[in-house]
Amino acid sequence: MKKFVLTGMLLSGIIFSGMAQSKGASDPKAKTVLDGVSNKFKSLKTVVANFILKVEGANNSVTDSKKGTVYLKGAKYKVTLPGQEIISDNKTSWTYAKDVNEVTVNNVDQSSSAMTPAKLFTNFYDKDYLYKLDGETTEKGKVLQNIELTPTDKSKNVFKVIVSIDKKNQSIAKMKVFEKNGNHYTYEITNFTPNTNLSDALFSFDAKKYPGVEVVDLR
């Protein structure tokens, strides 16, 4: 199930729980931008976002690229990738692998340090990272404000994250994660649709729709 661990990390912004409180000083201009994204997201009832996930090895060689969709409704979420689904109703989480027709069931960690896809858009950055504004760039007709985040826990494999914010829409356009082993992960949002009608049934796993599915219940 290694690929699910990787996917889950990426879709939660590659943020690790249990990091120390920031001891250094962060850039107040960067905080203003990040707070704007967080406040906008908190005002939305639901979000549907399409994304491209790219995994790059050393020397920027692309080793994998996948398209997916994330559905968010409060703390509930569903992530779909080719052959994979990750679902949570904020009490139970289900991780489904199509190739083996298996779903793993877990209780949701309710601690404040636990990371979920929803927290990618909220104020995770205040406790886990130091951050600074790293200029603006223009990509695909959009002005992006680039913010460099460095984790306060230096023992982690991730040493830097670049978050690119759409200046006009105050939303995350792209996130690039740098690991000490030379791997890079890019999570690019290609479409962002707020306040669509999402049924609560979307955020639970219905085994009846997956004939013969093997259930691994770890609760």
Can you tell me about this structure?
It is a single chain. The chain is mainly beta. It has one domain: outer membrane lipoprotein receptor (LolB), chain A, CATH 2.50.20.10. 13% of the residues lie in helices and 45% in strands. It has three helices and twelve strands, in the order H-H-E-E-E-E-E-E-H-E-E-E-E-E-E. A twelve-stranded mixed beta sheet has the order 7-8-9-10-11-1-2-3-4-5-6-12. A hairpin with a 4-residue loop joins strand 10 and strand 11. The longest helix is centred in the first third of the chain and has 15 residues. 26% of the residues are buried. The N terminus is likely disordered. InterPro entries: LolA/LolB/LppX, OM_lipoprot_carrier_LolA-like. It comes from Chitinophaga polysaccharea. It holds the Pfam family LolA.
Outline of this structure?
The protein has 219 residues and is mainly beta. It has three helices and twelve strands; from the N terminus they run ααββββββαββββββ. It has a twelve-stranded mixed sheet with strand order 7-8-9-10-11-1-2-3-4-5-6-12.
Name some characteristics of this structure.
12 strands; signal; twelve-stranded mixed beta sheet; OM_lipoprot_carrier_LolA-like; disordered N terminus; globular; outer membrane lipoprotein receptor (LolB), chain A; 219 residues; 45% strand; mainly beta
